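Let's see one such:

===
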Amino acid sequence: MDFNMKKLASDAGIFFTRAVQFTEEKFGQAEKTELDAHFENLLARADSTKNWTEKILRQTEVLLQPNPRPRWQFLANSARVEEFLYEKLDRKVPSRVTNGELLAQYMSEAANELGPETPYGKTLIKVGETEKRLGTAERDFIHSASINFLTPLRNFLEGDWRTISKERRILQNRRLDLDACKARLKKAKAAEAKAAAVPDFQETRPRNYILSASASALWSDEVDKAEQELRVAQTEFDRQAEVTRLLLEGISSTHVNHLRCLQEFVESQATYYAQCYRHMLDLQKQLGRFPGTFVGNTEPSASPLSSASLATAAATIPVVPTVAGIPSTGEAALSLDDVAPPASGTRKARVLYDYEAADSSELALLADELITVYSLPGMDPDWLIGERGNRKGKVPVTYLELLS
């Protein structure tokens, strides 16, 4: 018990000394040992690495698991808390249904209830199957990114950086102790010089001279003690500075490791987007939409019309009245050679991308050419009738820029 009390009193004294030294440095009343420029650069680089690693980690987590507002925010936060608990317990996180898989489930259930044999039901089933594949690809991407990218970043922050921070705090304490010893030695030397320079010789009683000589000897002992403490403090500071320096120089290895992890993240993301593209391309073909060669056109002269503007654009396209003997619905049975442009006129359109006709009812297009377009009753609003010279056929609206 006595030993613990002494240790507690000693620790309290050291803490008080450090607090006084730190406060005096802040007010400019005490000198501070400065670190060399290389050491300061290492500290700055370590701080930048830590700060940016935290930001990248948080934003990547948001990318992999978006936080929708406001309805599903609570569920998203609960999922993250659950993952955190499983990680701390060192247990495998159970697989969770992705948004794409949940959408696929809803579409499948809707198709079964609304009629799986109807056109709408069949389309729901096809789209649902694709959404399920997209959800599976998303889960694989999230899993790969978590292992190859997020985990190394998190390990750095929770492992290496905590060690660096701990050693930096120890170095700070050693520096405060060193500067406190320097200040104590400086004061002791000043007091010794004062006692030695102004002895009390004017006193007639020899007792005063003896007291003055004793004070000088006392301050001399105090100087020797302060010098010994300074040597010990300097040795401890140098040793701790070397330990901290080695850890800070290890940040270069951290950058190399994070670079490799970043490359693996990019590869996983590229694989994920490539899978998504293939799945959506297959879906387009199943639904009768052929993108042609426009996918490879990296510099389009204008963006295709959005789905929201298709209805507006279609509403301004002249419509051919129903021709006798030709059904107004069922485009497959329509003979385009028997259809003439509407009397109310037609519109000109500029082709944005090359388009390969899928069958004889469609018109092949070349980018930047001008064609004449109009609509027929009962046509899909995403398609128009296009004419170029004596050739005629269906063309997709998204490949056209309608001119006034």
